[in-house]
Amino acid sequence: MAASNPRAFHEEILKDLRNVGFSDYEAKTYLALLLNPNATAYEVSKAATIPKANCYTVLENLRKKGAVQAVSENPIKYVAIDPQKYFKQMVVVTQMRCEKLQESLTHVGTLPQEDLVWSLNDRDSVQIQIRKMIDSATNHLWIKAADTTLEPHCDALQKAAKRGVEVLIILFGNDVKRYDFGKNAKVYLHEGNGIPVGIAPTLITITRDFEEALVAEIGTSSYGSYTKNRPIVNMADSLIRHEIYFAEIFKELGDSIHEKFGPALIKLRQKYLPASQVKSLKSLLKKIEEPT
Questions:
Q1: Range of the domain at 36
Q2: How far apart are CA 239 and CA 171, in angstroms?
Q3: What total of structural domains would you count in the chain?
Q4: pLDDT in tens, 163-211
Q5: Is residue 251 part of a domain?
């Protein structure tokens, strides 16, 4: 991205700086100083496209954060602290503060965490929670998802399988080999064919060790729900467990089921799915059945 679209690359950097606590002006100033080291406040304000009247305050705030420093007096010029050094220090300081808060807040009170359902409101929070569940698994991970949705987590799933976690995947798609992680992994194509139905291409359901469950949609707008609530976790486990039953049944009786209910159970689905999803499924089946 940096070479092909520098502006988009810089916008992404500014967004990430804001996400770690920089104000909009601070983010623009820090980036401007990286691109134009040893600059006066006037030069910084021009490069960062911020008002000169605000620039001294912004530079002073960044100096207090340890992100910039003055290197001369007449005129005063500034340089950005090396990002490698600054952000490594930020990680250490932030971790220490978080650990201190964890310890302090445990003495304030406790919340019934197991009863709550947490809302995940963007792609990053969904992906981070999925990764946490994979990394903390000790017994099993049951997953129902499309191959494209699981792709970012392949390495983590492989590591889980290697440490003895039973990884079982009900897969929409056809790239079964991509998720073959050895003896501790088992992959079933959904209903024997992996044909996506409804919002399946962007939906993921994952449960861990009968203790946690997450359901999310990862698409243009990403959101989901995560919980340790026992009845809800049991419901998600039951959903995937019945998908496993179906997978085993389709493996043995797939031809008969196909003959009775049509490809992708279309004769059943058209009775119970929303009309828009039935239309999309029929269109997809038509494309699959057309000779190439």
A1: 6-84
A2: 14
A3: 2
A4: 999 999 999 998 888 898 999 999 999 988 888 888 888 999 999 999 9
A5: yes
